[in-house]
Amino acid sequence: MTREPCDRCEELLQDFLDRTLTDAEWREAETHLSGCDYCSRRYRFEESLRKYVKTSAVERMPPGLMSKLDELRGLDATA
Ligand SMILES: [Zn+2]
What we know:
Distance between the termini: 25 Å
Number of domains: 1
Order of helices and strands: HHHH
Bound molecules: zinc ion
Oligomer: single chain
């Protein structure tokens, strides 16, 4: 099993989670995540962490922002 640092992926991962990727970058990140065990595990960990943080922040959010976030969440409904 190869264990590479995945520097490029590390960069993409943060943007991936922040939903700030371009379409091309998004595809690059998805492709990498599906083929890289290390990064896909990191991604799952980071995402569950962020979901937890978001959940605990939900009560303080204005309704408009909530529906905006729901839209964004719809993008990774298959994850
Ligand atoms: Zn990787």
